# Entry
Amino acid sequence: MHEVVKSAKQNMEKAVAVFRDELKTLRTGRASLGILDPIRVDYYGTPTPLNQVANLGVPEPTLIVIQPWDPTLIPAIEHAILKANIGLNPSNDGKAIKLPVPPPTAERRKELVKVAHEYAERARTAVRNVRRDRNDELKKLEKDKQISEDDLRHHLAEVQKLTDEFIAQINQILAAKEREILEG
# Structure
């Protein structure tokens, strides 16, 4: 596999990985620690990921429990959760924070599906941009006589095949997430 094609594959894989990460932040009605990933807690003046200052757990399908290693961080963690605007209301018992995850309304589910589709379209666009950039690179190599016309045709076909595969993968991931959101 030519370096340009290999680079295309790696960049397309990154686009799919970003898409998966974005989908994790969508709340489906089931408790998922992924929705806490973007939250940063002010830990002695440093914004720190929540999972680096507390144990996170999902004891029930509709509940997330956050147990800070330092109980004095509870107010800072609650503040960070509210500031993150993820639609969950924290409550604490002095030792741990409980985040009940209510099932989304039908209207909210439709909004979430729409957001998932936007994320998917961004991912597909990223994949197509990688294709365009790599195709331009290959055409330049051919123009500079570093690869033959046959090699160019072959590599362009490889890049197109990768593009089709990654877009199909994005569509599959989207369909699964859509089912998860709508079934809740």
